[in-house]
Specification:
This protein is an all-alpha fold. Helix content is 74%, strand content 0%. The protein is built from 25 helices and no strands. The chain has helices at residues 12-15, 24-33, 35-50, 54-60, 62-70, 83-110, 112-131, 136-164, 170-195, 203-209, 212-221, 229-234, 238-249, 255-265, 275-279, 285-300, 303-316, 321-349, 351-376, 386-404, 407-418, 421-453, 456-475, 489-492, 498-501. The longest helix is centred in the last third of the chain and has 33 residues, at 421-453. The chain is globular. The two termini are 24 Å apart. The model is unreliable at 1-11 (pLDDT under 50).
């Protein structure tokens, strides 16, 4: 079995390099596309902040506001338990789930660029409804439109980044998507902290409306984005793909990479199977498993508990409104910095090392946070002292750091790079769908789970972190420096997957 875990392949494809470099053109294109990640992150961060603002709660969720202020008999863990309140957060992800399936078809048929444009426009409209909301209907409608925008954006953007990037820098450039998500979360937390002090109850409106800034940049910028060479070849525009490839690689000698892209695309011309039927074939079993497992595990780390409800969680353990929002800013800053570090080391250390070390770090920190809360925070007793509250904050930051350099960026990177071209769009769609389903479930149930499981919620998520770390160690081969066009070969050399896909293509 020891031989089975060896993931350092000796095949020529791992070190195969094409001509070209990382040009300013590809960097600017990827920065513009990554605005889709900023939108996603901004929405994650902004919802948790505004739901902790008293004017927002008083206007839309008065029962929660009265319970927080007046009910002295309710458990500390149950003050914010409201299905209507969680629906405000989670409704976006149901809409995103539905939208992602339409986005898959558009991304495959018309290219990555139209999906990015649709995503930006839908988000812009949703922002207008949210910022101007006069009742709960307008508020939820705005969230649904935001979900449509996010569904299209995160379907197309990871594919766009992985296809535009040279193989040896694909990890760093693709991790820019998670960095942009972290920047969006951090920006939202900073804006929430600033608007919370605005008199007249307008702070939450400004927080929601400010999402129009990245949405406008993405919508307008998408008109100037080039389509990816992979998508152009898939749609029969080989000559145009060559011109784009020459421009983004900064050289006219791109024939070797172009030939591999055309060869990889050739199987898509077979009319025998629809995309969903293709991914169910035995030869694509490893990719299908990873398309489901990686986003599943990414969400059951519990990260969205921190992303969505950090201010509410910090208020639960005893911090005030401003201190809770400032603590959310701190966790956002830690996540952004850690993701930035990941961009520089992911193509050197590899994906597996970061997955495993990040998992260990998250597991230990969650056990410590759960232990402190179980020992010091009772149902009706005094809240945590400031010392213990800040100790919890420190270890939550350690946990966020572990996620942000590992499962955060790699949960998007690895699925976007492992699919052959003929199943890439449907594979990404499955990844996005699983992500949205789990995000919805966690967003909708966390406050209720916190009420019932109390401090045990951290042990619950910690257990999943342990399972997923073992899963990566056993079943995920290393993908660093492997051209996307040659990615299928790593499964035929893996100790477990080679038994399913066979040693030779077509077995």
């Amino acid at each position: 079995m020891a031989v089975g875990f060896n993931t350092e392949m000796s095949s020529e494809y791992r070190n195969k390099q094409y001509n070209g470099r990382v040009t300013k053109y590809v960097i600017l294109s990827c920065i513009m596309a990554s605005m889709g990640g900023v939108l996603f992150g901004y929405d994650i961060g902004i919802s948790g902040g505004v739901t902790s603002m008293e004017p927002f709660l008083r206007k839309f969720f008065p029962k929660v506001f009265r319970r927080m202020k007046e009910d002295k008999d309710i458990s500390n863990y149950c003050k914010f338990d409201s299905q209507l309140l969680t629906s405000f957060t989670s409704s976006l992800y149901i809409a995103g789930l539905v939208a992602s399936f339409f986005a898959s078809s558009i991304t495959r048929t018309y290219g990555r660029k139209p999906s990015i444009l649709i995503g930006g426009a839908a988000f812009l409209i949703g922002t207008a409804f949210g910022g101007a909301a006069a009742n709960i209907f307008m508020l939820i409608l705005g969230r649904v439109l935001l979900g449509v925008g996010v569904g299209f954006a995160i379907q197309a953007v990871p594919l766009y980044l992985s296809e535009m990037a040279p193989a040896r820098y694909r990890g760093a450039i693709s991790n820019g998507f998670q960095l942009s998500i972290s920047l969006g979360v951090l920006s939202a937390n900073l804006i929430n902290f600033g608007t919370e002090t605005i008199k007249g109850g307008l702070g939450w409106r400004i927080s929601l409306a400010m999402a129009a800034v990245p949405a406008s940049i993405l919508t307008l910028g998408s008109f100037f984005l080039p389509e990816t060479p992979n998508s152009l070849i898939h749609r029969g525009s080989d000559q145009k793909a060559k011109l784009v490839l020459q421009k983004v690689r900064g050289t006219i000698d791109v024939q070797a990479e172009l030939d591999d892209l055309i060869n990889a695309s050739s199987t898509t011309k077979e009319p025998n199977h629809l995309p969903f039927q293709q991914i169910l074939q035995k030869k694509f079993r490893p990719q299908l498993v990873m398309a489901i497992a990686l986003p599943f595990f990414q969400q059951v780390t519990g990260i969205n508990v921190i992303a969505f409800y950090a201010p509410l969680l910090f208020r639960t353990i005893g911090l005030g409104e401003s201190a809770s929002l400032m603590s959310a800013v701190l966790t956002g800053l830690v996540g952004t910095c850690s993701t930035f570090v990941s961009m520089f080391i992911v193509d050197r250390l590899g994906r597996r090392v970061l997955f495993i070390f990040g998992g260990i770090q998250m597991f230990i920190s969650q056990l410590i946070v759960g232990g402190i809360m179980a020992y010091k925070l009772g149902d009706h007793t005094e809240l945590l002292t400031k010392g213990y509250a800040y100790l919890v904050l420190v270890f939550i930051c350690v946990y966020v750091c572990g996620f942000a350099f590992s499962w955060g960026p790699l949960g998007w990177l690895v699925p976007s790079e492992i699919f052959p071209l003929e199943i890439r769009s449907i594979g990404q769609s499955i990844t996005v769908a699983v992500n949205f389903i789990l995000t919805f479930i966690i967003a909708q149930t966390f406050l209720s789970m916190l009420c019932h499981l109390k401090a045990g919620i951290f042990f619950f998520f910690g257990g999943w972190v342990f399972v997923m770390t073992v899963f990566v160690y056993l079943f995920l081969p290393e993908t660093k420096n492997v051209p996307i066009e040659k990615m299928d070969e790593i499964w035929r050399e893996h100790w477990f997957w080679k038994r399913i896909v066979g040693e030779e293509l077509g077995e």
